[in-house]
Structure formats: C-alpha cells, structure tokens
Amino acid sequence: MALAAAGAALVPNVASTVIVSKGLTVGYNLHRERKRLTALKNIDLSVRRGEFVVLVGPSGCGKTTFINAIAGLVEPWEGTIEVNGRPVSGPGPDRAMVFQDYALMPWRTVESNVRMPFELQKLGLSQEEMDERVRRYIELVDLKGFEKSYPYELSGGMKQRVGIARALVGEPDILLADEPFAAIDAMTREAMQGELERFVAKAGQTVVFITHSIDEAVTLADRVVVISYRPGRVKEIVPVNLPRPRFDYDVKTLPEYGVLRDHIWRLVKDEAFQAARGEKR
Ligand SMILES: Nc1ncnc2c1ncn2[C@@H]1O[C@H](COP(=O)(O)OP(=O)(O)OP(=O)(O)O)[C@@H](O)[C@H]1O
Ligand SMILES: [Mg+2]
Predict the structure, then answer these.
(1) What pLDDT score does 6 carry?
(2) Residues near ligand 1 with C-beta < 6 Å?
(3) pTM, full prediction
C-alpha cells in the first residue's frame, strides 16, 4: 500500500492534473505608448492536485500575470490555460486569490472584508456556517479582536492577513497567492508559512504561490518554478523533496536545503542582474 502510494507520487497522473498551461503567452496593450508588451512567453506548466508550486523570478517577469491568467483576470494572447480540464473563461469560486496589494475594501471592516466571497458566490452554506467560517479564518490569521477594525487602522502585515483569510474562507480548490507574506514581519511570517503548509495539506488544496524569498520558496514548495526576465519564460523547474511538515522537521538545518537554496539563488540572480542591466521591452 505504502509502495503503491509512493509509486503514484513519482509517476505524473494526467487525471490528477488540475492546472495546465500550454504555450501560454500573455501581454498587455500599452495604449499610451502604442505598444504591445509581452509579459509571459510560451509557458508550459502542469500543476497536480494538491501540489504546492512556487513561482520565483525578477520583478516584472510576469509572475502576477501568470496567476491572473489562472484566475481568469487576463486572457491568453496565444496558447491555453485550463483548470480541471476546461479553458479558463473568468474567475470562479474554485480559485481564490491573495492579492499583492491586499485589495481590501476600505469602507468595510475586517469581518466584512473576510465575508465578501459569500456575497459574490453562492456556496450553499447556512448563515451559521458562514459566521463560523468567518470567525475561524479570522482566528487562523491571528486577527481575533480586530473584527470591527477598518483597513486604515491596520498595519501592512495585518491587511495582508485579512486578504489571506478572505481567500481561504470559501475553502477554494485552488489558492493563488501573490506574495502573501511580503509585508509580514519575519517571526510571524515563519509561523504563517507553517500554518499555511498545515492548512493546505489538510484541505488538500492546490497552491500557486509567488515569492521573492528563496527561503520561503524552498520551505513551502513541492516544485519551484524559476521564471526568466521579461518576457517571462520557464527557466527551470526545481523539485523540492524535503520532508513535510517542513516546519516540524526544521528543514533549514538539512544539507539538501542549502543545496537547493544555492541552486535557485544562482538561477534567480542571473535573471535579476539581467533585469537590472536594462529595462528593455
Ligand atoms: N495592467 C497592465 N497593463 C500594462 N502592463 C502591465 C499590466 N500589468 C503588468 N504589466 C506589465 O507586465 C510585466 C509583468 O508584470 P507582472 O506584474 O506580471 O510582474 P511580476 O513578476 O509579478 O513582478 P513583481 O515581482 O514586481 O510583482 C511588467 O512589465 C508590467 O509592467
Ligand atoms: Mg507581481
């Protein structure tokens, strides 16, 4: 039984693939400059159900654009992006997003921001179930006591945690997280990484997560996808076979951790230098 399970994990199973990007090219029309900017070029990537995929790469390489394409917020110029075997045609309750810039509603309290997915999507929950979930996820992100606060009364890290609670409250199949811990202090950040790992393992969620922190990438990922400087392409996919839960195993002390970290750092550094040398489109 254990062997069969281990074997299954090694052989990619098409039925267990949840997100498939094939030859995906996405860009933007820059009306003011009368130009077209290619943000991502020819991205081939399949994400398995329950997998934790982390995207890293220099600023402006198209990471946010890629998760926006999965979320249905931008359309492919070329190629396809499919979720559960169907081309993405817009946002849906199966995918939730934690936005890089929080995207909270300033006139709503913490509680009311977290409750938003229930107003936008009919999930068939009773009022009690919704109230219970809102309470549970506010507690999970450590914001108990701030339910009635408005975003302007919160720090950057607290706002980010509201965004995380709002993404999780609908218990989506797929979590798209755009640098969700960037504004959170180092100690809380590590604790939240541990919480997220535990949480998604329990819920069986598929996660596509963006970070600029190589440590965060190695700590969380099943695979790290390194994206090259603009137009973003897949430069390398690095499998991370460290034991889970990573927090409990204290993986940072393992020699493999250092090897992976160095390898990914080298890949990203090359691209970041290229980005710093010229912002050509
Ligand atoms: N709405 C838009 N209109 C025009 N250009 C855009 C738009 N959104 C992104 N871009 C451009 O597309 C490219 C990729 O942007 P994207 O936000 O995907 O990068 P990123 O990898 O997420 O960067 P960062 O790490 O800084 O968040 C950039 O050159 C950016 O200027
Ligand atoms: Mg971004």
Answers:
(1) 38
(2) 28, 30, 37, 39, 57, 59-65, 100, 230
(3) 0.90
